[in-house]
Amino acid sequence: MSACLEPEPTLRRMRARDVDRVMQVERAAYPFPWTAGIFRDCMRVGYGCWVLECKRRLVGHSVISIAAGEAHLLNLTIDVDHQGQGLGRFLLRGMVAKARDEGVETLFLEARPSNLAALGLYRSEGFSRVGTRPRYYPGEEEREDAWVFSIRP
């Protein structure tokens, strides 16, 4: 593992040239990762696409859609070699701050019930479970529900 203590991690807008590295992080983190095309489409339509850098290395990314006073956190991923160091919390807080800066009243996200680390993070940051999307996520044998969370930034 490689800690990212100094200098402090930084957030910046995702660029087209970041997509290859974003895909490395995405594929290592998830059994059913997003595709490069999804990230490119998100940038093309103007979603908030962000990367997290530590020591000039891209170690995480996030995508947030903001419209009509609501935001939807669509993706939040940290490189598996950098997980457990508070970077997910740093990135999540950054996305909540971006939503607040845009005047968002409610920020939503989904998480797999089996993703205990994500559930713990979201709850510890003040997110509340507000619903379930049945069979939302792909799975090895069957689809998995998504738990829907929200917060007022």
Task: Give the tags.
Aminopeptidase; alpha+beta; 153 residues; 7-stranded mixed β-sheet
What does this structure look like?
The protein is globular and about 40 Å long. The relative contact order is 0.15. Helix 3 (87-101) links the parallel strand 4 (70-78) and strand 5. The chain has 153 residues and is α+β, with helices and mostly antiparallel strands. The protein has one domain (10-151): Gcn5-related N-acetyltransferase (GNAT) (Aminopeptidase, 3-Layer(aba) Sandwich), CATH 3.40.630.30. The protein has a 7-stranded mixed β-sheet, with helices on both faces. Helices cover 29% and strands 36% of the residues. It is built from 4 helices and 7 strands; from the N terminus they run E-H-H-E-E-E-H-E-H-E-E. The longest helix is centred in the middle third of the chain and has 15 residues, at 87-101.
Architecture blueprint of SSEs:
Blueprint lengths: L9 E4 L5 H11 L6 H9 L3 E7 L2 E11 L2 E9 L8 H15 L4 E6 L4 H9 L3 E10 L6 E8 L2
Parallel strand pairs: 4-5
Antiparallel strand pairs: 1-2, 2-3, 3-4, 5-7, 6-7
Task: Describe what is shown at a glance.
With 153 residues, the protein is α+β, with helices and mostly antiparallel strands.
Got a strand count?
A: 7
Helix content: 25-40%
Strand order of the largest sheet: 1-2-3-4-5-7-6
What is the CATH homologous superfamily assignment? Answer: Gcn5-related N-acetyltransferase (GNAT)
Give me the oligomer status. Answer: single chain
Instruction: State the end-to-end distance.
Output: 32 Å
What is the CATH fold-level name? Answer: Aminopeptidase
- Give the total of domains: 1
